[in-house]
Amino acid sequence: MGFNALSRTSSHRKAMKRNMVTSLFRYERIETTKAKALEVRRMAEKMITRAKTDTVHNRRLIARDINDKAIAAKLFTEIAPMFAERKGGYTRILKTGNRLGDAAEMVILELVEKTADKKDKKAAKAKKAAKAE
């Protein structure tokens, strides 16, 4: 299966994809063009699948692309466990319309499940349990 060169040199394209996937894991959603989102999605899905099995080898492979140690740790400790039961499809692409300047198709690339949602649900369950007693 091929890839989209995105009208960039290979070093620029690689750096851009690394930065975008790091931002996706940091903020759990990013807004970008459709072409870029499709490329970043491929990379992110593979990284999440790899992070589901926490080995030294997998940590090193992910560290090649994510230079921020805190984000790499978040991927292994928060994001990957959320998707333990899911076999793929960790991200979704939502169309937002065209950009004004050049009419490029813009989308939001986001994780299907949010870490904040999980924390809120756990807090709500704990609060309900406390009220019941």
Explained architecture:
With 133 residues, the protein is of the alpha+beta class. It has a single domain (10-132), classed as 50s Ribosomal Protein L17, Chain: A. It has five helices and three strands. The chain has helices spanning 10-27, 34-51, 56-65, 69-82, 115-132, and strands at 29-33, 91-98, 105-111. It has a three-stranded antiparallel beta sheet with strand order 1-3-2. β2 (91-98) and β3 (105-111) form a beta hairpin. α1 (10-27) crosses α2. It starts with 9 loop residues before the first helix and ends with a helix. The mean pLDDT is 92.
Number of domains: 1
What's the order of the H and E elements? HEHHHEEH
**C-alpha termini separation:** 57 Å
Classified by CATH, the class is Alpha Beta
The amount of helix comes to: 55-70%
Largest sheet: 3 strands, antiparallel
CATH architecture designation:
Alpha-Beta Complex
What's the number of extended β-strand segments?
A: 3
Shape: globular
- If you consult CATH, what is the topology? 50s Ribosomal Protein L17, Chain: A
Integer-rounded radius of gyration: 17 Å
Q: How are the strands ordered across the major sheet?
A: 1-3-2
Name the CATH superfamily assignment.
Ribosomal protein L17
> Residue ranges: pLDDT <50 for 5 or more in a row?
none
Beta-strand residue fraction: 15-25%
